[in-house]
Write a structure and sequence with these properties.
Blueprint: H1 23-27, E1 30-37, E2 43-50, E3 60-66, E4 76-77, E5 86-90, E6 96-105, E7 108-115, E8 122-123, E9 131-136, E10 143-148, H2 153-160, E11 175-181, E12 186-189, E13 196-202, E14 208-214, E15 225-232, E16 239-245, E17 249-253, E18 259-264, E19 274-279, E20 286-287, E21 295-300, E22 308-314, E23 317-323, E24 329-336, E25 339-340, E26 345-346, E27 352-359, E28 362-372, E29 375-376, E30 380-381, E31 397-403, E32 409-415, E33 426-432, H3 452-456, E34 461-466, H4 475-478, H5 488-502, E35 506-516, H6 518-527, E36 535-539, H7 545-551, H8 571-575, E37 589-594, H9 602-614, E38 619-624, H10 634-652, H11 654-660
Parallel strand pairs: 33-34, 33-35, 35-36, 36-37, 37-38
Antiparallel strand pairs: 1-2, 2-3, 3-4, 5-6, 6-7, 7-8, 9-10, 10-11, 11-12, 13-14, 14-15, 15-16, 17-18, 18-19, 19-20, 21-22, 22-23, 23-24, 25-27, 26-27, 27-28, 28-29, 28-30, 31-32, 32-34
């Protein structure tokens, strides 16, 4: 059995003074997630892994913590941790736990069931491969799972014979819905051929499903039209009940089978920030969260559809609410200065809450709370992972706000340098989030792409802005960058930097910028619009919005922000591309990219590199083999973070700035 240490990232230096977090510590931090409270409220099962993988395949273990434990060390490891055990799901009677694991063949998952009091995990699905969306039926007799069609014997032979020409968009592998009888260990595929099932939900009678599906398996179709359909548990021809743009996330039936709810988008930007109710025949679509000033990030029902729980972003913080089927919201967990994994998990009787909780200065751990009269009490920690992290040189984290142009109020987070002295100015990094439909929240800012605490321990102030287009502020704010990519966002970020200068925190001569994905786009765009930044780190960024439309895997996502595609009208895309203004750049740029990134093709990084190199500007371009849009391998994460530290130190140290004058 592989035992996961509760303190895998302890500070090893012998000095009594707190030391900055090292890339090695951050790459080996214990990660805790997917906490699920038993329906009877007695225990929480959750997944424990590490921030990076040390080898070809991921490794993770299931753990269990008793709800009533008085010690944070009472949690115990439930599975071996030698494979990738994930997605634990309780049976309705709390007696069994189903989960996904690749223990039979690494990298290919199957479905297992294990008694809740321990024992051997029994494989109940004879297929293995890419699985997701594991759920139990309401009566506990069946499981359902989404399974992507595997490679056929003929396809394997063609590959072995080197006769494997690939015709794009042909021979697609569809994600289909399977029903498993865990006692008989039999399974049936119930969704039709050539139908991509994006999401689904069991009906309360366990005799049928609602599915959100499309006839194309391209990931790009997540942002286009999908269909809601009813399909029998035994399979057969689906009955369409309507269409929608984007995916119906978190589909849930009412307990009487009359209604369905799901998360979907209210405006041009496809995200799923609101909850909609329809009749089971698809009629009478109603938004239940209209006017809500936050963003709904998760929707669940603890009791088979009688009550609904919303997990929400409210500004930079987390909150959970009850939602009635008539659209009445009431607080379950009032807005807290921290962040929880989605969804928050509630017992069947509604009297207990379990979630993975973290703050700006404490990494994630499982927390629980008693619920009385519908309101959760104080959160209580029942695990104690990553204790060593909290003794490192951390910066204080607080919300910060300022007024941008047009009188728009903007919020973000500020990580002050460790040992901050009021009145002293510090080198300051504007770290821009990805998305763009996303936001920085009050979690622990320490990872391969979230450098807040890593830099704060080295004397930097770090601004984490949530400009127009970010989540957590309602639909109007989230849609405010539609038709204005790089416009209001840029001004919001720059006025935030100006506010820190005016408040005596940021040194105007020692400003840096960086970000990953959309944060990489904003980094490239910013250095093409201003010379104020002395150093920039562009991670998986896209400096050319036109070419990105043709080489990225989700070009339809751009229709959230542009009225036409680049093929129809390239000018708006070119107008907001950093490459168009590349001769304006003076900032040294470090470019980082996964070599196998399908989301933002590494050729985007190469375009920026070649352009800056041709102008004789300081630039480095680093690619990481085998890595996609996220960097997962341990040595790659460590290398990346070391390069970030060195780049900012090289150009933002007091000596470097003085020399450049």
């Amino acid at each position: 059995m592989r035992l996961y240490r509760r303190d895998t990232a302890a500070v090893t230096e012998t000095s009594t003074e707190p030391q900055p977090l090292t890339p090695e510590q951050l790459a080996t931090m214990t990660r805790v997630g997917d906490a699920r409270l038993a329906p009877d409220g007695t225990a929480v099962v959750f997944v424990v892994d590490q921030a990076s993988k040390d080898g070809e395949n991921e490794q993770a273990a299931l753990w269990i913590a008793p709800f009533d434990s008085t010690s944070a060390g009472a949690a115990r490891q439930f599975t071996s941790g030698l494979a990738n055990d994930r997605a634990p799901r309780w049976s309705p009677d709390s007696g069994r736990i189903a989960f996904l694991s690749d223990r039979a063949e690494r990298g290919k998952s199957s479905v297992y069931v294990m008694p809740a009091d321990g024992g051997e995990g029994i494989r109940v699905f004879d297929q293995q491969g890419e699985l997701s969306g594991l759920t139990w039926s309401s009566d506990g007799r069946f499981l359902a799972v989404l399974f992507t069609e595997p490679e056929t014997a003929e396809e394997k032979k063609r590959k072995e014979d080197r006769d494997d020409a690939n015709v794009w968009d042909h021979e697609q592998k569809y994600q289909r819905l399977w029903v498993i009888d865990p006692d008989a260990k039999t399974a049936t595929c119930v969704s039709p051929d050539a139908r991509q099932v994006r999401s689904y939900a069991w009906a309360p009678d366990a005799e049928r499903f609602v599915i959100c599906a499309t006839g194309n398996a391209r990931i790009d179709d997540l942002f286009t039209e999908n269909e809601l359909e009813i399909i029998p548990r035994g399979g057969g021809e689906p009955t369409s009940i309507g269409t929608l743009t984007g995916v119906a996330s978190d589909l849930t039936w009412s307990s009487d089978g009359r209604y369905l709810v799901y998360r979907s988008s209210a405006g041009q930007v496809v995200h799923g920030e609101h909850v909609y109710r329809i009749n089971a025949d698809g009629s009478d679509r109603v938004c239940l969260t209209e006017g809500y000033s936050g963003t709904v990030e998760g929707l669940s029902s603890p009791d088979g559809g009688s009550s609904l729980v919303l997990s929400c972003a409210e500004g930079v913080d987390f909150a959970a609410h009850w939602l009635s089927w008539d659209g009445e919201m009431s607080p379950l967990l009032s807005r807290q200065e921290g962040w929880a994994d989605v969804p928050a998990s509630v017992s069947c009787d509604g009297r207990r809450l379990g979630l993975v909780w973290q703050t700006g200065v404490e990494p994630e751990n499982v927390h629980v709370a008693e619920v009385a009269d519908g309101r959760a009490g104080a959160l209580r920690k029942v695990t104690d992972f990553n204790n060593g992290i909290t003794t490192a040189a951390l910066g204080t984290v607080s919300s910060v706000s300022w007024t941008s142009d047009e009188g728009i109020d903007v919020e973000g987070l500020l990580v002050l340098p460790h040992g901050y002295v009021e009145g002293q100015r510090y080198p300051t990094i504007a770290l821009v989030h990805g998305g763009p439909t996303w936001a920085w929240s009050r979690w622990f800012h320490g990872s391969w792409h979230d450098w807040g605490q890593m830099l704060a321990g080295r004397g930097y102030a770090v601004l984490l802005p949530n400009p127009r287009g970010s989540t957590g502020r309602g639909s109007e704010y989230m849609n405010a960058n539609a038709g204005d990519i790089g416009g209001g966002e840029y001004r919001d970020m720059m006025t935030g930097v100006d506010a820190l200068i005016e408040r005596g925190i940021a040194d105007p001569d020692r400003l840096g910028i960086g970000g990953w994905s959309w944060g990489g786009y904003m980094t490239a765009w910013t250095v093409s619009q201003t010379t104020r930044f002395k150093a920039a780190v562009m991670g998986a960024g896209l400096p050319n919005m036109v070419s990105d439309n043709y080489i990225g895997d989700i070009p339809s996502a751009n229709l959230s922000y542009f009225s036409e595609s680049a093929a129809q009208n390239p000018e708006p895309f070119w107008e907001r591309s950093a490459i168009r203004y590349i001769r304006n750049v003076t900032t040294p740029v470090l470019i980082l990219h996964g070599a196998a990134d399908d989301r933002v093709n590494p050729m985007q990084g190469k375009e920026m590199y070649v352009a800056l190199r041709s102008l004789g500007l300081p630039v480095e371009f680093v690619t990481y083999p085998r890595e996609g849009h996220s960097i997962r391998e341990r040595k790659h994460q460590i290398d990346l973070m070391n390069r970030v530290i060195a780049w900012y130190e090289r150009y933002l140290s007091a000596g470097a700035v003085e020399q450049s004058r």
